[in-house]
Fold these 4 entries.
Entry 1:
Amino acid sequence: MKIGSKIALFYTVITVSTITVVVIVFYFFTSRYINNLYDSYLAEKAFLTAQKHWEKDEVDEYSYLEIQQKYDRLLPQAREILLNIDSMPAVNDSLNKYLDNNQQARLFKSLPVSFVYGELRGSALYYPDNEGNFVVMVMADNSYGHDIQRHMLLLSIFLLLMSCILIYFIGRLYANRILRPLQHILKELTHIRGSNLNIRMKTFGNKDELDELIRTLNDMLDRLDIAFQAEKSFISNASHELNNPLTAIQGECEITLLKERSEAEYIEALQRISVESKRLTQLIKHLLFLSRQEKELLQSGREQVDLVVVLRELCLRYPEVVFSTAEAEGSIYITANNHLIGVALQNIIDNARKYSQKQVVVRLEMRGSNMVVEVEDYGIGIPKEEIKHIFHSFYRGSNTREYIGQGIGLSLSMKILAVYGGKITIDSQVNEYTRVTVTF
């Protein structure tokens, strides 16, 4: 069932249920009012009957005539029963036939009593007089009231059915109107493919949840487009970088096999193949690492890593790298994988060594609650407009063409450091210096 039909059906059920409760309550109280009104007429008829029979000798002729006229006009079809209390056994039989004990007790307290006998409604009245004590009972069929109740019931059922149909179609119309923007969204989404992720949907200007949904979907499409383009670029660059060493290895093999070679030439060829193979292996390792998710990195052997020890060991490998810190061993720890942190920092240091013409300075210090690692070199620098791209996989600066590299190191370092709470910033001037700052 579609959402529009569900909304219309739900709206109809709720509304009709509410109307049904209101109709039932209205019918109940209206029927009760009709019966109570008829009972009051019966009580008045009983009182007029008593006056007609026992007040003739106690009132003047005009008053009695007025009583007689009222008696004749009010419920002429009513059936009357007059009982003399003085003949108690016979009276008890009659009273027990129409009234229960509670009603009889109320009757003899001079309270009017209403009762039901079969299809008849009745009223009983205790009337003491100088001629004796009497009980007057008047009964009649409330045919007019029954007709009104029956017509009310039929009319209520008819209106309820009509309301049910009307409300359902109004609900469908209203639901379709509400869902029209959603249908438009669904139609637009069916047109979006991997080849046209740049398409964006327009909002309706209603400032409602559907406009918010469209904005959210557009934001999602922006992220998908960026990720898709990055993936295409990554695959293209990775294919290119993998192709270079493979082409070199294949070419070296083909040239070597063209004719007989001396032992020295074979050794030289194998050495060139070995270099390219190592380059290929390293590249594949980096690509596999870049494909790992942050969750996988976080789950790999975390421990307390002493940054002073890690940086000192890295810097001692290279004579041109100077390590500077005022912190003692065991004073600066981070929770991370020791090998991965080493890889990330070594990539940054290696980059500085590669492009520097002088010494590389590595500093470690505390700045407030932050642990800061600075790697500064004095080499070719990075053009200002290219710094924002430098962490993209396979991206290389426009002034690095003559240097060997694949453009993976910094993107790899940034991914590792980001997982462990590190943030990288770069400040650089072309042909002067480059300063990479890592803040934990």
Entry 2:
Amino acid sequence: MNDQKFTLVGAGPGDPDLITVKGVKALEQADVVLYDALVSKELLGFAPCAEHISVGKRAGRPSFLQQEINQLIVSKALTNGHVVRLKGGDPFVFGRGFEEIQFAEKYGIKTEVVIGISSIMLPGLYGIPLTCRGVNQGFSILTATSANGTISSEVSKAAKHSSTALIFMGLSKLDEVVAHYLNEGRGNLPVAIISNGSHANAQVVAGTVSSILDEARDQKPASPALLIFGEGAAHAMLNNQLNQKEEVV
């Protein structure tokens, strides 16, 4: 049996080609792979001899509790050897990766982190600059949903002060997010929704704070989705532009 080890690997934002070389090497050395629902199954091909276990958590569907995942990491490491936890995006950005590392270390298991390309980078794929000279010099990153399922208090702060806000887990709370921005008199601020970013079925919905609810009702973007509230969203490549780009390529 291999030495007991736990490696936390970021799989990237969805496109399997966006995993790092180091992440692929970790998969090749795995005895067990615990993978998330949003991870491309193609990546499991790099670990053909390992045991593959789906531990994905999706809103509104039966799923593993975080404590169950933590226990599975430890039990599989102690009995099988090298466990790779394959998580979408970067595991330290709304990924609870730090909790899993801490839990494994309590049992004396050697740990390693392989960072991944975060979904924070997705706007650039669709023409949206997060910073732009003469427009804004920074951006904020937040979740729209708190631990108890209500809207995060960070949303109201972003609506007041942020030049550009990237909002995770916000599609189901889009109306509440918009209400905060409208209350701050920012109805003309550009907004974009990136659905299934980096996948072949990616969808980009754009508008302003005042119009984005109607646009979303018409175009019905699906989760997972990233919300961008900021001037850069005015440059979003829309679905027809994406299709034209694919045809040219």
Entry 3:
Amino acid sequence: MDTNNIYIRQLKALIQSAYSSNVYQFLNHPSIVAAIQIDTANQEKASFQIQKIVDDLLGNVRVNSISIYRNIPDMIENDTDYAKEVRLIGPHYKLIRKLSVNKCTGVAKTNRGVAILENEDELYEYMKRFGNMHKAKLDSALQAPFPQKWDNSINLYDWGCGQGIASMVFLEKYEKATVNRVTLIEPSKVAISRASLHVSVYRPDVQIKTICKKLDILRPDDFNISGANIHIHLFSNILDIDDYSPTHLFKLIDECFNGINYFVCTSPYIDDIKAEKLNSFMRHFQNNYDSFMKISEATNQKIEGSAFWCCNNVYNGFPCEEHDENVISCMNRWSRITRVFLAEQ
């Protein structure tokens, strides 16, 4: 937990008021009452107390419900029509996305892009609807002052990788970089298999490790760190979701990744609460690592009057009829929040 004390007090006051009015009966649960009484002055201690209450309250249902997922190193899509076509295309993101666009039927739903993808139609739909926005955010985050070349070998980690969009964008930009290993982390078996395929198209000879799990059941022994002490962590459209424990993720990263760690964190700007999750993630390293260095950050909302960043027409190099020459009034604008930083341990 790393939330501003002002927000903590406001939230506790709202819960206490609702509890006192007896409007919501579930607030009478002993676990909820105990959570309200936790002293949040020491946020690290409070975080573990709150997480224990959550786990007790849910009966660890999150872990048990997804324990069937295992680390399968060779999860990769092969011998499908898509695999054959994408290998013919080669390492070209726009053409690979166009393949999905052409195959998309428009029937599949992706729940705003946050649901775990379950079939090939959903893979096509996601790539069509969100592929350009993903790439645009990542391109902006990877601009200078982020390093523009790597003189030493690197390990690449794609957290919540989906179809591997973040890895594809990174590998396309840094085509000459020496990559020791690409680690893909994703709970959807169909998505991680396709991500592994995509990475293999970009780097046929690189070692690919697949970890088919949700973030909350990752363990230190899932990661075999070797061969490079520079780690690039890609968190693309994952830190703003609700389905993970930040405390668990912090502990995992703190324990596992010795060396130089670059964090590239991007998400759409949904609201202040979800934006705060990215800020909180960065603050953990800012508060706990003397080596912390912020590289870049950007925040652009979708609402009119906020600073314009990009839209589909502008991204594709076309004039946008929705805005004036200063690109102010476009209501089809894309939003973004990016936080890019370094921490060495």
Entry 4:
Amino acid sequence: MPFTSGPAPAPLDSGLVAKLERLSFPTLGHYLEEGFADFGIRRLAGSTRVVGRAVTVRITGQDSTVLHHAAGWCEPGDVFVIDTGGDTRHAPVGEVLAATLSFRGARGVIVDGVVTDLDEVERFGLPVYARGSSVLTTKLLSLDAGGVNIPVVCGGVAVNPGDVVLADRNGVFFAPVAVVEAIIDTALADDAEEPELVESLRQGAHLGDLTGASEAVAGFGAS
């Protein structure tokens, strides 16, 4: 399939971003089942959390031409989400790509594959998530293939340009803006209750009593 390019996605609403910056990302797992990348994609460089809009890139085989092109148009707040087509041998992201994205204000990069130059990448502070690392890199082969700002798959999740990307030490989450907007206030309220819950546990309370689990268990098998 020849190279395909879609329109740049709209920026995320600043109010939504501010709420997401306060959120404990795993709280979303209390309410949602979809959007969570598989555990093989882990943070390999950087230490900060990622909140941003998805800029999607699909590369083909060993060729990173499309990625180099897209990186030059990175905007502040972008998170590059790279679909390698299942290639876990060739690293499309290394020192130069990380430098480019960092200098242009990217919030992070998520690669469904491997990366390289980890020691050098660390200097830029850019959070980089991938399945592993390799010294075998992609090449600039100028193949008419792949795409930018098109639907991709990353970590088993379908990702569209403009989707919300959240990532931290625990893992990576992708979702349409509407999904996140619908749940964010509930999730933040849940987070706000946790300190009181933890304090009650410190004072000797039983977790099942606090959450209602013990009451549910007591009703198992009741006629």
